[in-house]
Design goal:
heterodimer, A: mainly beta, Porin, 14-stranded antiparallel beta barrel, 15 strands, 6% helix, 56% strand, globular, B: Immunoglobulin-like, Immunoglobulin-like, 5 domains, six-stranded mixed β-sheet, 1% helix, elongated
Chain lengths: 313, 559
């Protein structure tokens, strides 16, 4: 592919990074509850994202070459009464031959869907629940380039029926390889379009935010066995970085075990930094992952995520 | 007293055909040597020069004759006498004449003449013609003063537009004398008199009355600042001649430009700036009392029903006995319908004929017959358990003017008055007693109609270590987080996290050491709105013992 075409694609991705700001906090959205995502401090947009791409970068759905189904659970520690559960399904059009130097091939087309449920008990002991439906699709017209979109609708609210709302959101992402088949860059425009409406009340609109990611996979080290992969990710509001994270993934034993670690830094509101950890086991089409972020600064509760994914063959 | 002097300047060359010249001669034509320190002397200055030879004589004298040269037997007094060979060719001379005979009594009033003589060895010079001097020790005098019309009503249709202030004098000389009128007013704010208007005599008016001549001033009634006046103002007429003699006469100028003022007297006394009166139909009085005030007295008062209707009802004067005001009685028709509004335009005329409706807007009031009960107030505060005694309880009501009463266990504990249209929120701050208590509200509209009691707000106050935090934040008044610590605390922080773990805001609670409270405006530390939905609040209590307590709560923003 010509250098000019890749330059144009890279320019388009850069242009998407300079979008408007974010309104963080709140819920009423299809929440990113990927286990690998938590273990890598949110830096899991690229590479072999697999089924978790439905939470993060939809353009990475093309990493699914057959089909995958999975269940994801999140729970907070210290008795914080919020639980997430997600069921997801995705399928790809079939593995294309890997590029020279690419550590594995991917699909030209992929689609996915997910259902998420949130259950919480508020401070006044009232019950609250939300549900979300998400659908995503990805297309890779060029071997080094893919794009994806995600539409999600979230609804629910207080169980007493007094405060209920619905929100619709569109996200859009691009992903490309450049310089090296293992080197990837991605950009995701979250809440490209968003609208929240209370059943009885006013509307609210989240401003778009941009997630930039850069990853390099298929790395080998001369001393240690297995494959390594690194990725960095930042969420931006204009020129202001809301948060960034970096993750390192070490795959051992021919893909049977994976160890993950990351570092998360929040710069929105008050500064906050903490490490993340996780691991995964994969055998005969089944993959079990666990992710954890601790309460290191005496503030937010620790988070645990566990997931099981089955990949079709 | 204003000094009026007539100076005659002869800045021209006064000379004969010879070489002696008289220049710049200056003297007062008239003066009054009466010892009042106003123009008591006549100043004189002049310059004498000789071109061909030295001057040998310079003489300035006063004579009873105007003939030149002046005969010695007519001389009254020599003012300057210079002789000899040392005068030279130039002299600039200044002197004055005191007009006194032997320095004691003044010469008789009348005309005198100034002569100036100068000579050289070969030439003699006399100023010609002689200068006129008048000794005048008598001021112009008043025979009478008068003001017409009095009072002056410039705004009244068909009345004079100018007030005439006359004075008659037998010895006022229009050529040499002046007449002025100063009108004064009193400033209540400054606490002193000030010059309201300054007038000069109407130069086109002089009427011989037989005993003297009558002159006049004309006043439009406007002050120097251009505003039309109302009231009685003292004035001073001053006559002054050119010899410095003056006389004054006082006048009083009465100008009426206002209509009577109207006040409504009704049950309860004087209403201050109130133009709407609310009555329950059952309590409607049978009459309305109106007081009209004017310093010239009130002629009549009447009322029209509605804006376009003619004045159709005359008030019944009650005879106040005071010439400056009158009370009128208007009977209210017995057929007025309940739940209606009647607009009444009161108009009143003073004894000079000024109608309030002509000079200003008629005084309008609305009599509102309201027999409808207002809606019962609604509680916005949620009932339930409380952990702190001091509580803000909030409600809402609907009507323009309401008095809200708060009852606690059937006893009135507070009242508030609302003066806004539509739905209005109000709050009361109460101190709770331990245990259960019940609060109710009652609203009274301006006509005294009661809404009846609201639903009960039941609060149960139990002190002790606890946290009270709204499960859902709406931004309502009084929405706060209360924390009672088990022991004294130094500080309490509330940390608001997104579900993803971003620390959006840290809020410090106020109060202590055992009872704390905090308010949160649902914004992050940068002041941005936080998206609706769930948040995590971590409450960190820093106890004096050094222990740190943490409580984690899930809350929702539902605004």
């Amino acid at each position: 592919m010509s250098i000019k075409t890749r330059t144009l694609a890279l320019g388009l991705m850069m242009a998407l990074t300079f979008t408007a700001g974010a309104d963080e906090g709140g819920s009423y959205r299809f929440q990113g509850t990927g286990t690998r995502d938590l273990a890598l401090a949110g830096a899991a947009h690229l590479g072999d994202a697999g089924l978790e791409a439905i939470f993060l970068q939809p353009a990475s759905l093309i990493s699914i070459t057959n089909w995958q189904v999975g269940a994801f659970l999140q729970n907070y520690g210290d008795g914080l009464p919020i639980q997430y559960g997600t069921l997801a399904l995705a399928m790809g059009s079939g593995e294309r031959m890997a590029l020279d130097g690419q550590y594995r091939g991917d699909s030209e087309l992929a689609i996915g869907a997910a259902f998420q449920y949130l259950n919480a008990t508020l401070a006044d002991d009232s019950a609250w629940s939300e549900w979300s439906l998400a659908a995503a699709a990805a297309w890779s017209p060029l071997r080094w380039f893919s794009m994806g979109g995600r539409a999600s609708y979230s609804g629910g609210g207080s169980e007493d029926g007094q405060d209920r709302a619905g929100a619709f959101a569109l996200d859009f992402g691009l992903r490309m390889r450049f310089l090296h088949p293992g080197l990837e860059a991605g950009v995701l425009m979250k809440d490209f379009w968003h609208r929240l409406s209370w059943v009885e009340g006013s509307d609210f609109k989240r401003e778009p935010s941009t997630v930039l990611s850069l990853g390099w996979g298929g790395l080998t080290l001369p001393v240690l066995p297995g494959d390594w992969r690194v990725e960095g990710r930042s969420t931006n509001h204009l020129s202001e970085t809301e948060s960034f994270g970096a993750g390192l993934e070490w795959t051992l034993l021919d893909g049977f075990a994976t160890l993950r670690g990351g570092f998360m830094a929040w710069r929105q509101g008050e500064e906050r930094n903490y490490p993340t950890f996780g691991f995964g086991l994969k055998n005969k089409g089944y993959q079990i992952d666990y992710g954890f972020s601790p309460d290191v600064d005496g503030g937010f509760a620790p988070r645990h995520r566990i997931s099981i994914i089955h990949s079709g063959s | 007293m204003k000094r009026l002097s007539l100076l005659i300047l002869m800045g021209i060359l006064v000379s004969t055909a010879g070489a002696i010249e008289l220049r710049n001669i200056l003297w007062d034509r008239a003066f009054s040597p009466n010892g009042d320190e106003v123009q008591d002397t006549m100043p004189l200055s002049f310059m004498v020069t000789s071109e061909d030879a030295d001057l040998t004589t310079i003489r300035a004298l006063v004579s009873t004759s105007s003939e030149v040269p002046a005969a010695p037997e007519d001389w009254v007094e020599v003012l300057i006498e210079m002789t000899g060979d040392d005068i030279g060719r130039f002299q600039n001379l200044v002197t004055e004449w005191d007009g006194l005979d032997d320095g004691e009594s003044s010469y008789a009033d009348g005309f005198y003449y100034l002569h100036i003589f100068a000579s050289t060895d070969t030439e003699e010079f006399w100023m010609g013609p002689a200068g006129e001097i008048e000794i005048n020790t008598q001021s112009p005098t008043f025979i009478s003063v008068a003001v017409e019309p009095q009072p002056f009503t410039p705004l009244l249709a068909g009345s004079d537009t100018l007030q005439q202030i006359y004075f008659t004098s037998a010895d006022f000389d229009t050529l040499t004398d002046t007449a002025t009128l100063e009108v004064f007013a009193y400033s209540e704010s400054a606490g002193q008199w000030y010059l309201l208007s300054y007038l000069e005599r109407d130069g086109e008016y002089a009427l011989n009355t037989g005993e003297g001549t009558r002159y006049r001033f004309l006043w439009s009634g406007f002050g120097t600042l251009g505003n039309l006046q109302d009231g009685v103002f003292p004035g001073t007429i001053t006559l002054e001649d050119d010899a410095g003699n003056s006389d004054q006469a006082e006048v009083s100028l009465d100008i009426d430009t206002l209509a009577p003022s109207v006040s409504i007297l009704t049950i309860g006394g004087w209403p201050d700036d109130e133009r709407d009166f609310y009555f329950n139909p059952a309590n409607l009085p049978d009459s309305i009392w109106v007081r009209a005030e004017d310093r010239y007295g009130v002629d009549s008062c009447r009322v029209s029903w509605g804006v376009d209707a003619p004045f159709d009802t005359l008030g019944l004067a009650q005879g106040s006995g005071d010439p400056t005001f009158e009370d009128y009685l208007f009977l209210i028709p017995s057929n007025w319908a309940a739940d209606s509004t009647y607009r009444m335009n009161f108009d009143v005329m003073d004894m000079n004929g000024h109608w309030l409706s002509v000079l200003d807007a008629a005084h309008q009031v609305a009599v509102v017959l309201d027999g409808l009960h207002p809606q019962a107030p609604q509680w916005l505060t949620q009932g339930g358990d409380r952990i702190q005694a001091y509580e803000q309880i909030t409600g809402s009501a609907y009507e323009a003017e309401l008095e809200i009463r708060l009852y606690k266990n059937d006893n009135t504990v507070a009242m508030d008055t609302l003066n806004a249209g539509g739905t209005v929120q109000f709050s009361f701050f109460v101190n709770l007693e331990e245990g259960e208590q019940s609060f109710r509200l009652e609203a009274f509209d301006a006509s005294g109609n009661s809404s009846g009691l609201s639903e009960a707000l039941n609060l149960n106050y139990q002190p002790g270590s606890a946290i009270r935090i709204p499960g859902r934040f709406r931004g309502d008044p009084g929405e706060e987080i209360q924390i009672n610590t088990p022991e004294n605390a130094d500080k309490i922080e509330l940390r608001f996290f997104s579900l993803e773990g971003a620390l959006l805001r840290i809020v410090e609670a106020q109060g202590g050491p055992l009872e704390w409270a905090a308010e949160w405006n649902m914004r992050d530390s940068a002041g941005r709105d936080i998206a609706p939905g769930l948040l995590v609040v971590v409450i960190r209590s820093y106890l004096e013992s050094g222990e740190i307590l943490e409580d984690r709560k899930v809350v929702a923003i539902v605004d």
